[in-house]
Amino acid sequence: MEPERAPLGKVFNVPFLSLDGTSIEMATLLFLFIIVLAISVVEKRRQMVRRIVQVASFLVFYFVVYSCLGVFGMIRNGLYGLTLLGTAYSESFYWLALPVVIIAVTLLHGPVFCGWICPTGSMQDLSGWLHKRFQLVDTTKVRRHLLLFSLSSGVFISFLIWVGRKKRLFVEDSSLHWSAMLLMICIMVLAKYIDDKPSRKLRLFSLLAIVFTAVSHMVVTSPVHFAFTSRDDPASAITTLVILIAGLFVMRSWCRYLCPWGYLMGIMHRFSRLKILKIGGQCDSCGHCNAVCDVDAIDNGKIDVASCQFCYKCVDKCPKNGLQVVDTWKIEKVSPLPRRLIQK
User: Fold this and answer.
1) How many CA atoms within 13 Å lie on the side-chain side of 326?
2) What pLDDT was estimated at residue 61?
3) Mean pLDDT of all residues in 239-267
4) Closest Cα partner for 270 from 186, 329, 333, 194?
């Protein structure tokens, strides 16, 4: 007697049950990536198109991809998904889907998630616009900046004390620790007590903190968790406000100093296919690219891949076309490197 065979549909339905309810989110995110990859090859008015994509991405994350609890959640979800690999549970697809897609696209096309899609980065760009509009970059006004920033910090600390009187701050409110750290770093950088570039290594400690809390089964809420879920989370709301305020004084300060996902993207960018390179024969070290980079990832045409967010602004604004997006995987097959692609 022949054994009874399961319906063919069951072969496909059962493994993908864990993806139920996520198909819309993943399809939308993939669609956003396809848009970015398509327009990245278009040079005319690329920055205007980037702003449109940022607005669209923000709306998508706010109304659709709400299960992404910020950068902390992506790291925790990825770690949890790894623990499920090789088990009888297919839920690993659910937890690994978003992080794997972002990492894969980063390896192929650079950290476009940071520069084009990440909602936290988009919110900071709004602060960055105000930063430039009111010329807060003028170093002669540092004392006034510090006064305004100190007042903002005082308001934040006072509010924190007020919240602490009404409830006990548990680990769930730990996003406040990140906001306090961000304020402290920005004040010290503006006052020139510490340098900007070395301070970016703190992102590693931020990443280690998330990994430690994940393996310890602690719940740590992402700073912008409040903005993308219906959960009542005052701590995350305060931290979101702090990130916006800090961006008025140091552009994309969260991305520079504390974003753990940004640190991972910087590592992935070292091995990515596309990089922005200085074309030795065309770059005259005018410094224009230094001025337009929101994260100060450029030093006379040389790109710091650990900080670059692939917004293409330096490429679009270079008057000499001295910076170009290059397929480094093809270059690595050629030995020696062509002289025109050597960064001097």
Assistant:
1) 20
2) 75
3) 90
4) 329
